[in-house]
# Entry
Amino acid sequence: MPQIVLVVAVIAFVVAWRYSLEVALRWVYLPALLLSPNYYQWVIDGLPDPTFQDMAILPLGLLAVPLLLKWRFSITDVAVALFAAGAVISSWFREGQADAINQAYDIICQAILPYCLGKIIIETSGLRRKYVQQIVLLLAIGLIPALWEARMGVNVYQSGAGVFFPGVPAGWHIQSRHGLWRTAGPFGHAILAGVMLASGILLQRWLVTPARTGIKGLWRIRWDSAGRTLLLLIGGSLLTQSRGPWVGLVLGLCCLAPAWSPRPLQAFAKMAVFLLIFGAITYSVFDQYTEVNRFQAQSEEQSTAAYRRELLDRYQVIAERGGLWGWGRTNRPVVTGMESVDNWYLLVRLQYGLAGLYLFLSIQVLVIFRIYRSALTRYLASPEERQFRFTLGAVLVSISVALGTVYLGLQVFSFFFLLVGWAEACVLQRTPVQALEGEPVKISRRPFAFERVLA
# Structure
């Protein structure tokens, strides 16, 4: 009964119309994004295949059209639009009209709409902290079945939701490492779950750290409900046994720390120097660690690391042959024995070509540069505002680093673009939000400001 995805569309529309877009985004779209498996689709012959996430955001996108009159354009808008257009053009040239239509549908539901709604709704609602709390809470709830998955090797999301989607592939097979099953939760694969949980840890770190505590307070964990939630997210991240997201998390924490310094600009400069040195050392160690044949590696960890290095060598010629627009999503040549391309930057080069790679990198560089510049050089009077902008930047850095070991897929893709739009909204703010700790800004309860009267 895959038509169950339509129920989510009805709920999203009713909630948005009866209450507000803000309520629907927080209570319908975010749960659909973070708690429902995105690999389950309603497969329709000749049409795009909708998911729970798609059905949750399409009604919101439709009802948000009037808000576009207040849209404030930025250079990041151009980069996101060109990346989306490039993906569709690549599919059109390489795979034909039908695949290009499917690509356009996916890129609208999973990139354009999350970016737009993240930019025009979250900050204007004045409920920033509640959105962060909602994201963290949903990630924590999603971890509850992970304990069973780690012990028994059974993914509750696959077996539970799979009843409604007979014949639809259920993500990847569960992998075992060090005697425990790697938990994936609703995210399809353990490494994707690791990316999402690393993001949740950074966001929760902002929630639980007082604004004027100093850098030392950033490393303390209080034994209250918020502190226990943070420990739960850390434990869930450990259960994924995914090193790429762990590295991204560590670098994200380094990028977060200067915001709590009394001299954030000097602390940021020191952090940048440290990361350059750390990056050089890490690259040297990784280079030596992976200079082995993956079939002769001494451990599974070394074998997978060598596999990712070999990917770059084996696919380099294929990527160059793809030219400016790449091979498309389903048309790319595959190296025997290396079907899984566990590097988003290589994968986007293969699928969307040199244009797609440069456009995606431009999105990352623009949004991270702009959010940190706004946090460091503008008039921000409150430490809370500066710290939140640093936090968004740290999450984006964490995801960007992890993408060197995994593809940007399923929920992580949409979550990334939601954060990009959110960061742009912060950058474009002329004044800080009304109150991070106080009363929220009042907004219309309905997406259209029509009064229920008869003339």
